[in-house]
Amino acid sequence: MRLKNLKLGPKLIISFIIVTVLGILAAAAINQIVLRTLTQESIPLIEAAGSLGVRARELQSETLEYVALGDEEALDSIANTVTVINQLSDEIEASAVTNEVTDLADLSRVAHEMVPVSGWIIASHTQTLDRMDDLEFLEGQAELAVTNANAVIQAEVDRSVAADDLVDLVQDALPSSRLLGEYVVVTQRLRSEAVEFVATGEEENLEDYAALLEELTAIQAELENTLEEDEPGEALLQEQLTLLA
What we know:
With 245 residues, the protein is mostly helical. The chain folds into two domains: 3-127, Four Helix Bundle (Hemerythrin (Met), subunit A), CATH 1.20.120; 128-244, no CATH class. It has helices at 8-35, 42-69, 73-99, 102-162, 166-200, 203-226, 234-244.
């Protein structure tokens, strides 16, 4: 499976692993230099390896901060950190040949690999945030439709009671009221499953979401069947429910 196709949770785990590997490789490279004759040329190399480890941890921290808060300002910090990591990696890679420190080549390679991992995490989470914005917008539309539906159905109940029309009350008005209540409950449960999946990435949430979506579709179809175009407000209500389908 390609890394960019992974869920957010596994990507974050991989980012932790890469930072750990970077730390180990940096320490090994520095030890190789120290065990040899410490020269004027090797001191900048030690500093670069240490700086790369620090920047790698910063990149991880900034990425996790963006995931936790969705703060777009964090993206600027991430971009700056990525630039520094790339510069340090190139510098270390060139020094690896000059100073014959084999672990430096691995250090540079892993550092370069960490940058796209962070990018994939950010892109994945940005897409998630966009979809959550879409969900919030649709929830607002659904709330308006439900408020309108409640008023329309209650008016029908009141008319049936006033006219002493028990047949219409039992066969039409009350079932519509019941179905509307079920529609609201299932819609709320759908949102809960979506939010929980974003937080945990559990496949079970997707299965529950799919089942609830089928249930909501059935309720919506049944509710539309109880609405009558000649009743005040019910034709518009049918249109609103169709748009939310």
